[in-house]
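Let us walk through a complete example step by step. Step one is to write down the protein sequence. Step two is to encode the small molecule, adenosine-5'-triphosphate, as a SMILES string so that its atoms and bonds are unambiguous. Step three, shown after the inputs, is the structure prediction itself.
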Amino acid sequence: MDYENLTLHTDKYQINMMYAHWKNNSHNRRAIFDAYIRKNPFRNGYTVFAGLERIVHYINSLHFTKEDIDYLKQQEENYEEAFLDELRAFSFTGNIYAMREGEIVFPNEPLIRVEARIFEAQLIETAILNFMNYQSLIATKASRIKQVANDDTLVEFGSRRAQEADAAVWGARSAYIAGFHATSNMRAGKLFNIPSKGTHAHSWIQDHDTEEEAFMNFATALPDQSILLVDTYDTLKSGIPNAIKTGKMLESQGKKLKAIRLDSGDLARLSIEGRQMLDEADMDYVEIMASNDLDEEVIMHLKLQGAKITSWGVGTKLITGARKPSLGGVYKLVAREDAEGMIPVIKLSDDIAKVTTPGPKKVYRIINRKTNKSEGDYVALDSETVDDKPLKMFDPLFPQKFKYVNDYEAHDLLQPIFVNGEQVYPLPSLEEIHCYHKEQLSYIWEETLRLLNPQTYYVDLSYDLWKMKQDMIEKHSME
Ligand SMILES: Nc1ncnc2c1ncn2[C@@H]1O[C@H](COP(=O)(O)OP(=O)(O)OP(=O)(O)O)[C@@H](O)[C@H]1O
Ligand SMILES: O=P(O)(O)OC[C@H]1O[C@H](OP(=O)(O)OP(=O)(O)O)[C@H](O)[C@@H]1O
Ligand SMILES: O=C(O)c1cccnc1
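Step three: the predicted structure of the complex.
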């Protein structure tokens, strides 16, 4: 892939802070930021993490070109030449830890941890959040659709309605991570090795004298993979009978019609009657595909009504993350360097959920060996180790609510991605990411996975981390 230079894909305030740090000679001090979400989207019980691959390419290609520097000079006359020289020499030299793509993640745990000179860590906030927020949002929407569609075929149809071209291709990739089988977008298919699929549009029918002629011509051109759109004139009276005639023509040549596609009307009723018509014509091998503003709710209702649909084309509502236009992931400073070394920092808020958790942290998923299910996530100080000892897990807001876990495995979720600016994490293939996602889902209880009113998953703090946070809250409250 030809990765464009996204170094200026940042907010001006980041460059202004970089400049002010440089003026104050604090730009080389180290800082630690956490990227995390505060809420799952769509009232879901979990979020599917995505965006890391793009973040890795972005970090690797960070540099200010001559044109970038000229533009900055022109935008802000305060920027001194020596500062611009710092930018000319800029590259990422820090550490990044992150969840793997496809990971099942939850609010209030670090998904990405950046440790770098403040000069570098500040610049990359905007792009990191941009990639993580969009791709995780779409992967989560796709995961909800996948839960309802089960083993049916899911094809991503969203490009024409996506929020521009990048969203179309990275959204198609996010959908694949969560279990979609194919995309209609050829560029996404080529870039990410996603299987591509396509039927035909109403225009193909309108562009012929008759629907029958249109079907015959299409099926003759693509005899092994024809999916005929049957709703241009009248689905039951014209579309399906013509599709059956076309299927018979293919049979006479030893070929098979693949499917019909319904794109309007009552999809349950039309699929049930259509199935009957196809079966009566001895064409039980012809599948029924549906499209038209589908989402997890409509697909679920269609299944409840006994719809005979086994393949779903899902566009607008998937690719736009309908009903939740943005995932609100944030990037917060959790430690900074002073004369003594790294010190944790906190941001207070009247809203208790918005108080940050200080310090560099690890996230462990505590898997009960007996059930092979997760007991919750355990966020600990980076310096702590979680071993085989009985683990006390308590609700950080109500510490009197606790449990002991004995026979468990602690999966360390944050992976080193960059160390001293060098990429140390080999990017997995999309197929591997998808398989990893499926495996991780199996550790989560059904109660958390269900689409409606899911059980809140526990994200607990270790005692040492919780105590440090409480002490800092108290200290700052007394100031
Ligand atoms: N049996 C059904 N139960 C619930 N929802 C359905 C059922 N059949 C179709 N739908 C959904 O209802 C909505 C119908 O939208 P709309 O009224 O715009 O479609 P339409 O009139 O059939 O087709 P057109 O796209 O030609 O306007 C779509 O989201 C569709 O997926
Ligand atoms: O409905 P979506 O989930 O976004 O899926 C993609 C839609 O795009 C196509 O038609 P288009 O919407 O362009 O035209 P139409 O509404 O006239 O079918 C296709 O026929 C689907 O209906
Ligand atoms: O292949 C299709 O049927 C298709 C592709 C994109 C959008 N709507 C339909």
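Step four is interpretation. Residues 157, 184, 198-199, 291, 313, 315 surround nicotinic acid (ligand 3) (CB under 6 Å).
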